[in-house]
């Protein structure tokens, strides 16, 4: 394949990675932004989303589409519910203290991971995509005969991958509308800026925290449900999303929603492109290097504000 | 009527209040006085339920407030204007007001009423609160608390660091609220203000009551007030 079409293929793969990453990192970012909690268990909520998606799809799996749609709704809701319980049982009791919540979420990480190993087992299990048509993509070139369109061999994607990109975009826009345009979003933003004063104006800060923690975990789970027809569910699959989400959140600026999306695009696209042309390892090395540079030269992140 | 009876409170292990008592009556201004670190802010925070009290009680019209969840306290009709204003800096003026309105489910009438008290805010509804001038921020903090249509208003040094014209505006609004029958607890360091508007003054030191004076006693012996305020 020539360079142009090859780059387009790599960019499409990168866009799928970026879409999933944007959802997952957004969850981490919201939880940190509102609650000031660094959720080390975030990747396990992602993994739990994938595993529950497999479970729901298997139990209800008369037709792949029915199983998948059910998983898309049930798995994030269940994971969100589990996270809300974890918030009440654990985070609330350590009073959302910055250091103790890190230790507490490390504990959650192992509990969730090992429980999954004991029940779901060590095998990777697939979920069938609801639809998966292969779509050939055209390429345009300005040649001797003027402007021409042709269909390079191997330049194709699947309808499911395009669906993942579109679904992530829809969810992110919806989330942004909820945060900026609704009463619930206003309460979240007020709590984020000054939780004590919010409480003095009747905001049930404890309930806001529970919902935000559930929402953050639910977003990770949603990303995982979308990815599981491409990648399979496995009890150790939470590791990479956690690392990449941290990278995205640091580069984008802690708690900044536009920054998180931009950084997810940057990391996801470069991950896709570098993996295709060079190697996945090089992609991770470059992402990590980027974090180091951001931490040195712009510690507040691309879109974050300096802490005052 | 807001009754504060012998409250003790602590920041973690550090005890700050050792028995503060007073009664704020509707249509009266109670000035809470004391030097820096005496426990004035802590007293107001404890009334709001932001700090748990270990002894004593706070009640409004007979209902014990300190048994409620903290976020229920303002819903009973207590408007709080914290020291340093504590606006939501990245929310717009309109959104800061909206938060105040949501506390007790107040609507457009109340919004118009507070914006008529502070017309300057009406011109700045879309602006982020953190970018307002100091005087405008104090207006917004006051407006936000009045959005509750409160029975009790707690003001913590509302005129700190402001120019005289704004001080006069805030004082006018406080007097209007007194006339509306709101019980007002005002933490204030300026002798002239206290002399001019207090119906009673309560002095605290090291987290305890040390003295109390009626308006008449204040007028009769201004020297005592000056001594307590350290001026
Ligand atoms: N967050 C806190 N943690 C620990 N101790 C505190 C905290 N806030 C206040 N204190 C202590 O509680 C005591 C009372 O403080 P408070 O802020 O109530 O004083 P104040 O009378 O409002 O003073 P000022 O006139 O300076 O506002 C002080 O000794 C102070 O150091
Ligand atoms: Mg104070």
Keywords:
heterodimer, A: 308 residues, ABC transporter involved in vitamin B12 uptake, BtuC, 4 strands, 72% helix, 5% strand, B: 231 residues, alpha/beta, Rossmann fold, 2 domains, 4-stranded antiparallel β-sheet, 9 helices, 27% strand, binds adenosine-5'-triphosphate
Q: How would you sum up this structure, described in words?
A:
The complex is a heterodimer of chains A (308) and B (231). Chain A is mainly α and 308 residues long. Chain A has a single domain, classed as ABC transporter involved in vitamin B12 uptake, BtuC (Orthogonal Bundle), CATH 1.10.3470. Chain A contains eleven helices and four strands, in the order H-H-H-H-E-E-E-E-H-H-H-H-H-H-H. In chain A, the strands form two sheets. Chain A has a two-stranded antiparallel ribbon with strand order 1-4. In chain A, strands 2-3 form a two-stranded antiparallel sheet. In chain A, strand 2 (139-143) and strand 3 form a beta hairpin. The radius of gyration of chain A is 20 Å and the shape is globular. The relative contact order of chain A is 0.21. By secondary structure, chain B is of the alpha/beta class. The longest helix of chain B is centred in the C-terminal third of the chain and has 16 residues, at 164-179. Chain B starts with a strand and ends with a helix. Chain A binds chain B through residues 183, 186-187, 189-190, 193-194, 196-205, and chain B through 48-50, 69-75, 80, 82, 86, 88-91, 95, 98-100, 102-104, 144, 148. The complex binds adenosine-5'-triphosphate and magnesium ion.
Q: Can you identify the CATH superfamily of the largest domain in chain B?
A: P-loop containing nucleotide triphosphate hydrolases
Alpha-carbon distance between the termini of chain B? 32 Å
**Which fold name corresponds to the CATH topology of chain A?**
ABC transporter involved in vitamin B12 uptake, BtuC
Bound molecules: adenosine-5'-triphosphate, magnesium ion
Radius of gyration of chain B: 17 Å
Beta percentage of chain B is 25-35%
Query: What is the strand content of chain A?
Result: 5-15%
